[in-house]
Design brief:
Length: 114
């Protein structure tokens, strides 16, 4: 079992920045990927960024150059630094980790609005 606790969402103006954090606990030794998905109202959940144990990172085209995913192994925490935020980034952001199954955090709301 893996438990994920997210933090860092909130309200920000367009062009602003936020950093999301996701702390993992439990069977963290078995995690081979961690990342962030988001779901906007009326839309399907989509991948935002992911970190793979090989060191590879993947990003959705819509966030490339603006968002950065990173991991602190000592803290078992993955971060999503979001810069140059746009209104279309407004969504609930979910942390996820995969072992032989996928785990999800509770979600954190990010609202980009003036």
């Amino acid at each position: 079992q893996v438990q994920l606790v997210e933090s860092g969402g909130g309200l920000v103006q367009p062009g602003g920045s936020l950093r999301l954090s996701c702390a993992a606990s439990g069977s963290i030794w078995s995690i081979y990927t961690m990342g962030w998905y988001r779901q906007a109202p009326g839309k399907q959940r989509e991948l935002v960024a992911e970190w793979i144990s090989s060191g590879t990172t993947n990003y959705a085209d819509s966030v490339k150059g603006r968002f950065t995913i990173s991991r602190d192994n000592a803290k078992n925490t993955v971060y999503l630094q979001m810069n140059s935020l746009k209104s279309e980034d407004t969504a609930v952001y979910y942390c996820t980790a995969a072992t032989i199954r996928r785990y999800w955090g509770q979600g954190t709301q990010v609202t980009v609005s003036s």
